[in-house]
């Protein structure tokens, strides 16, 4: 899809001088995710890698765990009243033996924002549905110096950010620091879903020897997605939330925040940071 950016007229004021000029903005459109024909969730995203986004979202929900769980993903033709295809609705078709979730309002609220459920219920839901318990995986060790080098490498790889200044990014690194994949999106949770979905499609789950770096803060939702994909280390350039720290502590996830320059805070799983 080629709708990552759009042009809009802007009035520019610089040192008292006023001019009109076009500006490049990041595109934001809704994506409806359907599961075997039934509406499941809607997210606001930057178009592109929509199939990976949908697959990654379903990994974080415990529905998909391997490429064999997925039959196909298609854009829904006739998604509008006039029958046109907006490329904003995808339908994920699963293999016959995949156990499907109950599609209810309560579940949809939980899957999109964790609202409506107490923190303990949210923690329990992730802990009990994770396919690859992080505490049981072979130990990964990362040096502080390696972690400190990752934000600059993430920023250098953000191609669309350079044109818009309005995108979040998520990147997967190997434990040796190799950049494995990077995705950009208006929502950092979507960027993570795109990474995880691409890994599912390639048969690379669980991501048990990787480090996930996100621009901005580390919310409960991002920690959840890391745990569900089997990622042992989550690092963020900004602060984590309290519930993200609680989830990391309970699941064995290493959580690093305020990763800036040579400074960082390790909130959980410090045994992986050499």
Automatic annotation (TrEMBL):
Keywords from the UniProt entry? Cytoplasm, Molybdenum cofactor biosynthesis
Q: Where found?
A: Cytoplasm
Q: Which family does it belong to?
A: Belongs to the FdhD family.
Q: According to the UniProt entry, where is the signal peptide?
A: none
| Active-site residues, Swiss-Prot/TrEMBL | 115
Known function: Required for formate dehydrogenase (FDH) activity. Acts as a sulfur carrier protein that transfers sulfur from IscS to the molybdenum cofactor prior to its insertion into FDH.
Q: Does the keyword Cytoplasm apply?
A: yes
Major place of residence: cytoplasm
Q: Which Pfam families match?
A: FdhD-NarQ
Indicate what this protein is called per its UniProt record.
Sulfur carrier protein FdhD
HAMAP family (alphabetical): FdhD (MF_00187)
Source organism of the structure: Streptomyces carpinensis
Please give the InterPro entries that the UniProt record associates with this protein.
Cytidine_deaminase-like, FdhD
